[in-house]
């Protein structure tokens, strides 16, 4: 009898959690959350044994929140590369970005896995409760700025992009990321030796520009080799240069 009661209680909790999730999605889609958004930046590495649970968490969130303004960016840092396994997706520029967050958020060190939401909330990347709270709270906020990606065209192995920003903030950067939707790796050394790792929303290229007086910005960057346009998207966002706060975000597909 006790087992049956416990099973019924667990089923009730599952149904209740599902109902809350559906309610929150409905609220966001019908405007009850205002025009909020969530940019989720995961700093990760294939050389870190603590990172796969964080990778799996953002993959679940990516699937569950695919219809919401939630933008996941997985930055593979390079400081694990010297410890036995070279992460093919790693880049020193992504480590530099994580270091900037350490300065913005007044942190004493950098680590993996780490998540930063909207440039303000920081926590361990496998902390599911913290991530879901941060996303929910971000969706409820009213965004005072906007950004539109007006062009994203692949020509001759380079991405030509243009964007237009509307903001009352003064010192802002417009950041554009090429994001690969999904990939897997066979890890042959290091802490994850012998494992097959799955990744989502992998940042493959990154560029920062400053909008002009009219809010216009443009640029071009080298397209990652062997990455198909259909397997990627472009995420663009406005970021306060002084505080790191992300003010607006959008996404777009690549035209050829």
Account of the 3D structure:
The strands form three sheets. This protein has a four-stranded mixed beta sheet, with helices on both faces. Strands 8-7-10-11 form a four-stranded antiparallel beta sheet, with helices on one face. The protein is an alpha+beta fold and 256 residues long. It is built from four helices and eleven strands; from the N terminus they run H-E-H-E-H-E-E-H-E-E-E-E-E-E-E. It has helices at residues 2-29, 51-64, 92-104, 128-140, and strands at residues 38-44, 70-76, 114-117, 121-124, 146-155, 158-166, 172-186, 196-209, 216-222, 232-240, 246-252.
Please sum up the structure shown.
With 256 residues, the chain is α+β, with helices and mostly antiparallel strands.
């Amino acid at each position: 009898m006790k087992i049956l009661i416990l099973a019924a209680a667990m089923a009730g909790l599952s149904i209740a959690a599902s109902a809350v999730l559906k309610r929150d999605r409905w609220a966001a889609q019908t405007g009850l959350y205002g025009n909020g958004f969530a940019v989720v930046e995961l700093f990760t590495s294939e050389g870190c044994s603590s990172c796969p649970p964080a990778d799996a968490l953002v993959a679940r969130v990516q699937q569950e929140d695919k219809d919401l303004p939630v933008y996941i960016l997985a930055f593979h840092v390079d400081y694990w590369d010297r410890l036995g396994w070279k992460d093919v997706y790693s880049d020193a520029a992504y480590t530099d970005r994580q270091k900037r967050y350490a300065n913005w958020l007044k942190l004493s060190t950098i680590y993996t896995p780490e998540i930063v939401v909207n440039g303000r909330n920081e926590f361990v990347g496998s902390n599911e409760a913290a991530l879901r709270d941060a996303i929910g709270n971000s969706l409820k906020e009213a965004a005072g700025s906007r950004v539109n990606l007006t062009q994203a065209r692949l020509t001759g192995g380079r991405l030509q992009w243009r964007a237009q920003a509307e903001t009352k903030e003064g010192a802002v950067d417009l950041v554009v990321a090429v994001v690969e939707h999904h990939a897997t790796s066979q890890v042959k050394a290091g802490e994850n030796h012998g494992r097959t790792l799955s990744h989502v929303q992998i940042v493959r290229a990154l560029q920062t520009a400053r909008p002009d007086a009219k809010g216009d910005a443009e640029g071009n960057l080298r397209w990652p080799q062997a990455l198909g346009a259909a397997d990627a998207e472009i995420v663009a966002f406005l970021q306060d240069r002084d505080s790191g706060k992300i003010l607006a975000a959008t996404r777009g597909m690549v035209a050829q």
